[in-house]
Automatic annotation (TrEMBL):
Top-level division of the source organism's lineage: Bacteria
Record organism: Microbacterium insulae
Protein name, as recorded: Phenylacetic acid degradation bifunctional protein PaaZ
UniProt cross-references to NCBIfam families, sorted A to Z: PaaN-DH, PRK11903.1
Encoding gene, per UniProt annotation: paaZ
Record key words, sorted: Oxidoreductase
Region described as Disordered: spans on this chain: 480-501
Family matches, as InterPro entries: Ald_DH/histidinol_DH (IPR016161), Ald_DH_C (IPR016163), Ald_DH_N (IPR016162), Aldehyde_DH_dom (IPR015590), HotDog_dom_sf (IPR029069), MaoC-like_dom (IPR002539), PaaN-DH (IPR011966)
Domain MaoC-like: 556-661
Keyword Transport listed: no
């Protein structure tokens, strides 16, 4: 008998202290290929209320001590350590039926999520703990009352209930944004692959880098978990629609306000465009993609293609092409054997579930065009071959439907290497079929015809979280129908669970609360760390002489004035080659409703502004790397004067560098104090004066 797989809770590894009684018999987890026992799961006696409290207290405190960037740097370290120990995870995943390629999506995919979130966070989030959303709203005439939206982290625990098919990637795509937001995670893996989740958690625990309470793992069932949830906690669920529905209806979600999002099984579609006939690169790409989706993870992917929607005249050609590819490429067997390209399903229970779903599809009007539910010929771990006697093996199947609108095909998900083939006559009909799925995570379209793509986009986007257009240009570089990327939405409407919170920085913000904050410029500056116009400023010393260790928001330089002459405008025009009539032709310029006559180039003004505000000697300012939000407001005519006020607005020391970023608020005004231009200047500034090492 194997040991009980431990949980990692309240800062230590935990397992039931006594052999659980009959009423709480452990769940036995078996090897997907051989049926051997891998481990047992039991949470008998676990105090889930205390687990959540540990997250809300210790976890919140330790993550709250870090800024977004410090958390991002830790995510990168986690990714590096997991990369070093990748082979252990690959080896273990084989027990769950994962081939080398399957682990590429789960193990490497999970590590990739950490790397991506780490670098995106350092680029897109400030090095603070509060995220500012949108521009300042000026709410009083004199500018002394402002409003803006801020995001602050939720005060509770992020409970992540995961599916069995991606024990690593599926968990890390939730853990990474929660960690960045500063919300501690309680990870609940699905039972059949809980031992893979235990392995990556153990690796992270062994680094000693995890902030206390930032990650807890519960290996086994959590029957009363929802009883302990309260406002400020959130749940991210992946799994079946029925479990999602049950959990969502819990009182803590319905009335208390626990955020609940789900990503559930969806009947994803892939449309072969009418132009993508055999012999075109799009047809080939479509066939390749369908094969990948059928066989990766043995089709146990929430994003896999379940409905191949194909021009009526191409059904036979498609089935023939897939049959040929399967014969050429697919070797079913134990992932530990050489050359195996498709492993078993995760468990015998799951195989029974797939068989039941295939029977339901056939009863609903389908006909098996390819493959069967009988045990297939497989390669065993010792390299011998024969009909599978043990293990959860099934072969790839295509099920044809003469009536493409038969309800079963749009409702029954066979969570395995199974896709249905649906014929269509017009692109509009293809779009209608896509939408009959009732909401999907993803639809892909193989077409080289933008009008086909445009029709499908406009008619199906509302039913999909993601749409991938496959053509001859991206066929080789596409990340694929079934591969969500951490930059983009992973979720979908309706049957897909309704989620759109995963993907990009919105996933971080999902773990935070957006609040409208109103107050004076001084107060908003103090609360956000970002200087707001109207707040106090200092002009004691030129701010370009100050390294980050001395610079503060509000440090300011007010320039002298400079008069603009016609000669200057003409010199600039000839020097740059910008002879646009508004600068060079008095009559034409005066005829333009926006100009009183010839005016100075906006770029001349911005260049002059730089000349007016810089302090030219070598110093801590290292580089100017751009401008943002540049607006020209009032035109400047010969005879006008301009001056500029430059104020340090936001200071972001870079965690891993000897310098940081300074965003400066730049405002150019004319002799009448009218606003000429406003923009942000972005610079890199040394943390310490030259010669001083930190
Ligand atoms: P489930 O919905 O049963 O389980 C999903 C997760 O929810 C598991 O971690 C499970 O834990 C957990 N869970 C179950 N009951 C509770 C509860 N009362 N409180 C808290 N957590 C709970 O899905 P399965 O894994 O059994 O898969 C069934 C079907 O779901 C598949 O056949 C497929 O159709 C679909 N599916 C969809 C996926 C997707 O990514 N969208 C992924 C995987 C499956 P435990 O395992 O311990 O019961």
């Amino acid at each position: 008998m194997t040991d009980i797989l431990p949980s990692y809770v309240r800062g230590q590894w935990w397992a039931p202290s006594e052999e659980p009684g009959q009423e709480a018999a452990p769940v036995v987890v078996r090897d997907s290929s051989t049926g051997e026992e891998v481990c047992r799961l039991s949470t008998a006696g676990i105090d889930l209320g205390a687990v959540l409290n540990y997250a809300r207290t210790t976890g919140q405190a330790s993550l709250g001590a870090l800024t977004f960037h410090q958390r991002a740097v830790l995510l990168k370290r986690f990714a590096q350590v997991l990369t070093e120990r990748k082979q252990e995870l690959y080896d273990l995943s084989r027990r769950a039926g994962a081939t080398e390629r399957d682990s590429l999506s789960d193990v490497d995919g999970g590590i990739g999520v950490l790397f991506t979130y780490s670098s995106k966070a350092r680029r897109e989030l400030p090095d603070g703990r509060v995220y500012l959303d949108g521009p300042v709203e000026v709410l009083s005439k004199d500018g002394s009352f402002l409003g803006r939206h801020v995001y602050t982290r939720l005060p509770g625990a992020a409970v992540q209930i995961n599916a069995f098919n991606f024990p690593m990637w599926g968990a890390l795509e939730k853990f990474a944004p929660a960690f960045l937001a500063g919300v501690p995670s309680v990870v609940k893996p699905a039972s059949p692959t809980a031992y893979v989740a235990e392995a990556w958690v153990r690796i992270l625990v062994e680094t000693g880098l995890l902030p206390d309470g930032s990650l807890q793992l519960v290996s086994g069932s959590v029957p009363d978990l929802f009883e302990h949830l309260r406002l400020g906690d959130l749940v991210g669920f992946t799994g079946s629609a029925s479990t999602a529905e049950r959990l969502r209806s819990h009182e803590c979600v319905q009335t208390v306000g626990v955020r609940f999002t789900s990503e559930t099984d969806s009947i994803n579609a892939s449309v072969l465009g009418p132009d993508a006939v055999p012999g075109t690169p799009e047809f080939d790409a479509y066939v390749r993609q369908l094969l990948v989706e059928l066989t990766t993870k043995a089709g146990q992917k929430c994003t896999a293609i379940r409905r191949a929607i194909v021009p009526a005249g191409q059904v036979d050609a498609l089935v023939d092409a897939v049959r040929a590819k399967i014969a050429e490429r697919v070797v079913i067997g134990d992932p530990r054997a050489e050359g195996v390209t498709m492993g078993p399903l995760v468990s015998l229970e799951q195989r029974e579930e797939v068989r039941r779903s295939v029977a339901a599809l056939v009863d609903g009007g389908g006909r098996l065009l390819l493959g069967s539910t009988e045990p297939p010929e497989v390669v065993r771990s010792d390299g011998s071959t024969g009909v599978a006697e043990r293990g959860a093996f099934v072969e790839p199947m295509l099920i044809g439907f003469a009536d493409a609108s038969a309800p079963a095909v749009h409702q029954v998900e066979a969570f395995g290497p199974v896709a249905s083939v649906l014929p269509y006559a017009t692109v509009e009909e293809a779009a209608e079929l896509v939408s009959l799925g009732g909401g999907s995570l993803v639809t892909s379209v193989a077409t080289n015809d933008p009008s086909v793509a445009a029709t499908l986009l406009s008619r199906t986007a509302a039913y999909n979280g993601r749409i991938l257009f496959l053509d001859r240009d991206d066929a080789r570089t596409s990340t694929g129908h079934g591969a969500p990327v951490p930059h983009l939405v992973h979720g979908g409407p309706g049957r897909a669970g309704g989620g759109e919170e995963l993907g990009g920085m919105r996933a971080v913000l999902h773990h935070m609360q957006r609040t409208a904050v109103q107050g004076s410029p001084e107060m908003l500056t103090a609360l956000t760390g970002v200087w707001h116009q109207g707040a106090a400023s200092r002009t004691d010393r030129h701010p370009f002489r100050k390294p980050l260790s001395e610079l503060a928001v509000g440090d300011q330089v007010v320039s002298a004035s400079r008069a603009v002459t016609l000669d200057d405008i003409e010199t600039f025009a000839r020097f740059t080659g910008d002879l646009f009539y508004a600068h060079m032709d008095e009559e034409a310029a005066a005829a333009n409703p926006f100009f009183p006559g010839r005016v100075a180039h906006g770029y001349l003004l911005v260049s002059w502004a730089a000349g007016l505000f810089v302090d030219p000697e070598p110093g801590p300012v290292l580089a100017n790397y751009g401008l943002e939000n540049l607006r020209f407001v009032t035109p400047v005519s010969p005879g006008d004067e301009i001056r500029v006020v430059l104020t340090a607005k936001q200071i972001t020391p870079r965690e891993t560098d000897e310098y940081g970023e300074v965003r400066w608020d730049a405002v150019i005004r004319n002799q009448d104090d009218e606003l000429v231009a406003s923009y942000d200047v972005l610079t890199l500034v040394a943390k310490e004066p030259a010669g001083v090492s930190p």
